[in-house]
Amino acid sequence: MAAPKKGRRQSAPGKPGRSLVFILIALVALTGGMFLSGNTTPRLGIDLAGGTSITLQAKDEPGQKKSAINPTNMNTAVSIINNRVNGLGVSEAEVQTQGEDNIIVNIPKGTNEKQAREQVGTTAQLYFRPVLTVASGEPTPEPSASSSGKGKGKDKGKDTADPDKATEKGDGKAPSTPTATPTSQGRAVTDGLKADATPTPKASDKGSDKDKGAPTPTPSADPATQALQKKFTELDCTDKAQRGKVGDGVKASDQTIACGKNSAGQWEKYVLGPAELNGKDVDDAKATINQQSGAWVVNMEFTSGGSKKFSKTTSKLSQQQQPMNQFAIVLDGEVASAPSVNTTLNSNAEISGSFTQESAQDLANILSYGALPLTFHEQSVTTVSPALGGEQLHAGLIAGAIGLALVIIYLVVYYRGLSLIAIASLLVSAALTYTLMTLLGPAISFTLNLPAVCGAIVAIGITADSFIVFFERVRDEVREGRTLRPAVERAWPRARRTILVSDFVSFLAAAVLFIVTVGKVQGFAFTLGLTTLLDVVVVFFFTKPLMTLMARKKFFANGHKWSGLDPKRLGAKPPLRRTRRATGSAAGPVDPKEA
Length: 595
Hints:
Layout: H1 2-10, H2 16-36, H3 46-49, E1 51-59, H4 71-86, E2 94-98, E3 102-108, H5 113-121, E4 126-136, H6 154-169, E5 192-194, H7 208-213, H8 223-234, H9 240-245, E6 256-261, E7 267-272, E8 277-278, E9 282-289, E10 296-302, H10 304-317, E11 327-331, E12 334-337, E13 348-352, H11 357-369, E14 375-384, H12 387-415, H13 418-444, H14 450-479, H15 484-516, H16 520-550, H17 554-557, H18 567-570
Parallel strand pairs: 6-12
Antiparallel strand pairs: 1-3, 1-14, 2-3, 4-7, 4-8, 4-11, 5-13, 6-7, 9-10, 10-13, 11-12
Helix pairs in contact: 2-13, 2-16, 4-5, 4-11, 12-13, 12-14, 13-14, 13-16, 14-15, 14-16, 15-16
């Protein structure tokens, strides 16, 4: 007797209304979130929405004896550029090689397209250089002999004046620990740098003029330094053309000049020393929120070799006065950030300042993905029209509509009244898929491309298959002679196992395909996996509860010929219940005539 009771508990109908209310609340919440986010359509990929295609040509570094353009370095560059672009949230961006020395970058049209184009163009090596001099980004006028405050040379005056000016422009925020030094000399996103380290004693103020003035180019220096000083004086960082030529032909071991923005968003120019570290010395960089201040910061982690170099460099910088206690993070001749140092830093460091989320992530991406093994020049930039993709999408939607229509016709002809449950389930599944795709656009940068559309079309068959499995199990129970309500509850456990196994196989295939492929094929795999999960949700929380409610209606319970559950049409056996025979004599009354 225990086994039948256990079976009845497993097949108990429960309260189907609760499940339907749950799925209704989920639909309303997702739809409301979609409208509140301001995005009512999915984000489209480059093949559907258009975008930008950039061709980069690889160049060897100046002075190299052997060419570094080889398949290994090109593939490494593709990986770094892909991480850099997609790190900005430009999902479905395609990065691939073309020929021996070209890389093609396709960026879909979107909110971060402009920012991604800027970072794709900045393909030079990432360097950490000590700051020697900083001044306003405009050309420096020649000082007169009677100018006050200039001291022995014009550069000394710049070193003294500009920090005061930058301090006035800064945001006035000071780090909460004594190991940080606020500065506004760098980009607007950076005011200081700090780390958990023991402070290194600073040099005394006596003799600081000697320390501060020694590295600064002076008119009495050698010809190379004089030439650098002339370039620095004439450099106009407000001119984009001049900024683009600043880093051309500069080696890591050379002193150089560079441009960068201060905290007020104004251009400043720098004289920088030889590179102490490069991008390969950075192990990782992430934009996070400081738990104490609640402000956005960038956390850097260095490799073992990079930690030693960074510790040695910051030890020297911490004993200097501003601006010579700063190190510039330079990418393609532009100073991305120039934090100051007043303590020796080791393997971990935190860059803090007036960051926004976007600017912190921007700097973290530069630090993480800035070290390219080659120098690249932008060969061409073209705009991709969505016209061809639109035609393909139109054709794909027509194919999907035809397939959906054929599925519905089959359901109506074969399952009749049950097709209403299947069609309602398909509509719920479609609504959930659309809202989730729309919300996943801004959330994880999911973009809908042609392969993703194909994945959604394939999902129609997967969803319809689940309904068919359930319906056939119910009809098998009716054929055995059971009434509809117990037939539904007995059929569900068996159908449930089959549906879960089938969906697990589909999801596993989608997951493997997503992991082992790249580019647009991942869009197909992601959509297939998403719709497979939604199929489980819809069948469990909508189709089964709705079937339980319909089984209580006379139209289905009495086996109407249009219900799809007509016992005669299904070839049902006689009812399982049998009348109990009399317990008395097995023989009936004797006919008097026979007696």
